[in-house]
Structures are given as C-alpha cells and as structure tokens.
Amino acid sequence: xxxxxxSSRYLVKRTGEKVFLECVQDMDHENMFWYRQxxxxxxxxxxxxxxxxxxxxxxxxxxxxxxxxxxxxFSLILESASTNQTSMYLCASRWTGGNRxxxxxxxxxxxxx
Amino acid sequence: GNSxxxxxxxxxxxxxxxxxxxxxxxxxxxxxLFWYVQxxxxxxxxxxxxxxxxxxxxxxxxEATYRKETTSFHLEKGSVQVSDSAVYFCALxxxxxxxxxxxxxxxTRLQVTL
Lengths: 113, 114
Known about the structure:
The complex is a heterodimer of chains A (113) and B (114). Chain A has strands at 4-6, 10-13, 19-25, 31-38, 42-49, 56-57, 64-70, 73-78, 87-94, 103-104, 108-112.
C-alpha cells in the first residue's frame, strides 16, 4: 500500500515562528504536492515538486517555501507564521503522468496564535 | 484557467436514499476527472476516476460518467449508507507537463442519517 505520512497531526505555533511541515512517501513517487484546505475554498495548491530539487509555485505560494533534497521527502516551510496561515495542510504524491491519482497524507492542522 | 464547480452542501439524506452530487468543469483540452472522498479526520482518498469522454468510473457503489458535451462528472449512488458520510471533492487533471496538477472543487459534505 502507498503510504504518505506527515510529521504532525496537530500543531500550534506563535505568530512570527518558523514552521516546518514534513511529508514522507514510501512509493518512489516523482511528484509531490502541498495543499491547504479551508472551509468553502476546497484544496488550494501551494507548491509542487516534480523531482528532487525541483519545485514550482502553485496557486498560493506567498508566505511559504519548500525543500526537496531527497525523493521521498517534501518539506513545507512557513518562514514567519501568521494567523492567516491557520489551516489544514495536506501533502500528496504520485508517479509522473497526467491521469495518475494523487495519494494523500492524513493532514496537519496548524493553528497560529 | 481550469476550474471545477460543485453543488453546495451540506447534503443530508436518509439511509438507502439516492445520492447525486453535481460537478461541472471548465478546462482546455481533454482533462482526466476524479472524485476524492475525505472521511472525518483523514486525508483524501481516490473514489473513482475517468480519463476520457463517456468513460464511467465506479467504486463502492458510486458511479460517475465523463460527459464532454455538458462538461459534467456527476457522482451518484443508488443507496447511501451512514458510513458514506464524508466530504466529496470533484477534481480535474490537465495532461500537460510532467507534473500536471489537480484542480479541486470546494467539496460537498454528505451526512447520512438512520
């Protein structure tokens, strides 16, 4: 079974802190994605990576950066957390290909106070 | 750009009722279409997909048909169960590039009662 794990299920951080969200997949997938999920807005793509050390901005990259040093790991970084970044963060991965499904992790609910 | 429109929720049904969740899309070319489901406290998982016009995806009693003429991919189930209570997301994937992206609808919450 494909497994995508995220480092924390729940996280509480203070405004201005640097926050790292980690995602690991065990199926040798080339592509990895970070989304945030907010009520009424669905899932919005923050960043994605189509291979190691490759990254591209998604629809809402402002305030975020990413790192992909190894194929199995994709990190989302909030350089200086703000209250409007309180959200559910979902990581996904998949093999390269337009109609391939994405496999999702369980999500990290981040609260910034 | 690409977009997906889903019916607003929540949808509340009694067990064994018929379910339809509408989904329409806007895209250039010939996207692949997906339904994902999110159970409480979990990430999304693929429910079904269709990759070309007139394809029917099906899984766990759910079905959806890729209708190019109406740009729709409505989700249906003949008899829902309490265990189907979840949030359902319609999504499309363009086929361009090595890392084509998913565009999601806003999600429809389904609540099934006894």
